[in-house]
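Example 9 (inverse folding). The structure is encoded as follows.
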């Protein structure tokens, strides 16, 4: 599951075995399922039992491989696989290849999610796209907040700085709302000597990838709040 895409049919078959086990059934004798399986998949804090959607879990594992390639470029296996598939850009828009290994096919399956989960740590500003990458914390791509009547051209963050090293407010103030300008004011403008921009993971406070938060993001619950009543229920000192 951590290195190849499993067929959905195989994941469904494994989940059938898990369901039979949970409700005390066998392959020959099925017991009644007392709770809907979608409910059982919910986390404990939301009234479920925390069982995983195995196909989604598979994708979360593959995203981990993708982030290791992005954030640990000096590892031997990363250097080998980049050379094998001609990886030249910092973060390619697409990694699709007509002939490739199972691992690479798996990465291609989740590459859109990997790209959408990147938060750029801007240093020299050369590799981060001002409009179409995510680099302002808690904001998505700034193109969604642009007030221009047309789509802006892809522009490195470094091009939005004056020759004196400050944000180019004359260029930015007419095309971005005040709350975004306030966030930019709190960010250090890029400097050529700061080194290359570094990709990090946007769904964790410490900006380090975790399979847990990747799974939650893929099922659409990364912002779900724990339900207080279920915390009380699970905390009761009573027979299970």
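The amino acid assigned to each position is listed next.
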């Amino acid at each position: 599951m951590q290195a190849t895409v499993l067929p959905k049919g195989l994941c469904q078959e494994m989940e059938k075995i898990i369901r039979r086990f949970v409700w005390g059934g066998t392959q020959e004798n099925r017991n009644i399922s007392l709770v809907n399986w979608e409910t059982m998949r919910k986390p404990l804090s939301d009234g479920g039992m925390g069982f995983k959607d195995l196909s989604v879990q598979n994708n979360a594992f593959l995203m981990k491989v993708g982030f290791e390639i992005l954030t640990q470029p000096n590892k031997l296996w990363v250097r080998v696989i980049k050379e094998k598939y001609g990886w030249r850009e910092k973060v390619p828009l697409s990694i699709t290849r007509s002939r490739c290994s199972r691992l690479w096919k798996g990465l291609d399956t989740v590459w859109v999610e990997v790209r959408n989960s990147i938060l750029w740590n801007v240093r020299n500003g050369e590799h981060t796209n001002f409009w179409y990458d995510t680099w302002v914390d808690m904001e998505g791509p700034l193109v969604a907040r642009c007030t221009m009547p047309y789509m802006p051209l892809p522009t490195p963050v470094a091009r939005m700085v004056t020759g004196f090293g400050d944000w180019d407010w004359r260029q930015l103030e007419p095309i971005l709302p005040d709350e975004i300008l306030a966030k930019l004011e709190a960010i250090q403008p890029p400097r050529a000597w700061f080194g290359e921009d570094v990709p990090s993971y946007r769904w964790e406070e410490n900006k380090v990838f975790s399979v847990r938060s990747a799974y939650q993001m893929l099922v659409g619950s990364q912002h779900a709040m724990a339900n207080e009543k279920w915390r009380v229920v699970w905390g009761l000192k009573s027979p299970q």
